[in-house]
Amino acid sequence: MAIDYALDIETYPDVGMIGKLPEPEISKVLKDPAKIEAAKIEAKEKQLQDMALNPLYGKIAAYTFFSSDVEDVWTIYNGCSDNEIQLLYEIRDILYDKETKTTPFLITWNGTNFDLPFIYKRFILNDIQIKYSLSYWTKKYNETHIDLMQVWAGYGKYEKLDTVCKAIFGYGKKEFDFRKIPELITIEAGKDKILEYNTQDARLVFDLYNKFNGILF
Fold first, then answer.
1. pTM of the predicted model, to two decimals?
2. Which of 87, 106, 206, 215 to pair with 45, CA 20 to 30 A apart?
3. Which CATH number is 4-9+64-212 given?
4. Mind listing the pLDDT tens digit for each residue in 141-169?
């Protein structure tokens, strides 16, 4: 029987791709050379900040599959490494178990628009084959994945996980500076810190699933 997993990933910029970023677009209304230059600098900074959110220019730093069959008995599969290919193969093997020929039932927060497309596009960019396509998980009505953000906020709308958890449970995410991931991922203590944050995100998603289950779906 498939197990319910709350899935969450953390991503970071691939510095090796900085030189391949396209020339940022700026407003054609600007005529003053100084303002044009300032706009270019601002647009470039925004590009660099957003690299981690784009699978063309970002990598997966960590993943967590979180589950619980009995209260306070947790099943956690996770990993954090600067060797992304290793992580991708680990993720692939959880998404499809070759021995049992089954897939898990996934629970995410914005997984339809971010986590799953990011994972699958990284599969493509690293020539990793997988049993089922992205649409297997992300089609609007399916029995393999529930995107809790879409259930809560409505399709096409965005709501922060932290905002909803604080309103419902009175607690939310611990503070974490994503800009430090490229530095943290190079040391074991840093990897532990990334995994701690990643795992608590997945657990929050699982808590929301238990709260919504039987009421919203």
1. 0.92
2. 87
3. 3.30.420.10
4. 888 999 999 999 988 889 999 999 999 99
